[in-house]
Amino acid sequence: MDPLKRLREICMALPEVTEKLSHGEPTWFARKVFVQLSDHHHDDRLGFWCAAPPGAQEAFVAAEPDKFFVPPYVGHKGWIGVRLDVEDVDWSEVAELVEESYRLVAPGNLVAYLDERSVSPEQRDAAYARVAEICLALPEVENKPFGGHHSPAFRAQDKIFCGTGQVGRPRITFKAARGEQEALVASDPDRFFVPAYSGGKGWVGAWLDVDQDWDELAALIEDSYRLIAPKRLVAQLDAM
Q: Is the dihedral of CA 229, 234, 235, 237 positive or negative?
């Protein structure tokens, strides 16, 4: 699929988005710019630039420099560049990044409208309460959101083993054993996905607004805890 066409579809599906040319490149606005195409603009890359939360740019570029880069002009504001000229572009990840940029830039009323189209606050709160119940039952776990985020992030000795989505559909991310990410996503793509940020390290995402198997999720969260937590805490868990 033509990358520009696919990117345009993702951007224009969001509330009250307009497209204009800016500096010769297709650019998408939610009153203000939230995504701009970069078609070999000052370099040999085809990609786009978008807003990102504090700390995300550094994390993305450090983790996957072949996919992400610091863009000119807006890089100092924390925006990230995303390449579209790589093999097997993860369009689910692109859609997530675009939506997050939209939520950071768009006026509050448009963000509220987007939320109304997806899931109710009550549904989100209920899902995250269930996740919290599972995570906090494990030894010495604390809920400490990441960076400037406000969504729950569950940690063992300050290392995240289960995160939640700050924007969009309610979801969790968790660390998985080698090969499990591919197996879960391939077997049930309606429930599992490769998350942005941590997907390149084998983490798995699970949607919470679908018919989930909560016993399976609890087991997967525990497996993540075992991979992340110090041996001392894993031994405590085994003794419970």
A: positive
The CATH number of 3-115 is which of 3.40.50.300, 3.30.950.10, 3.90.1150.30, 3.40.50.620?
Answer: 3.90.1150.30
Each residue of 83-126: pLDDT tens digit?
999 888 888 889 889 999 999 999 988 887 787 666 667 788 88
For residue 165, how many other CB atoms are within 10 A of its CB? 22
Q: What pLDDT, on the 0 to 100 scale, is given for residue 80?
A: 95
Pairing mode of beta strands 153-156, 159-164? antiparallel
Over range 156-182, report the average pLDDT: 89
What torsion do the CA atoms of 10, 93, 75, 31 make, to the nearest 10 degrees? 30
Q: Which CATH code fits 119-239?
A: 3.90.1150.30
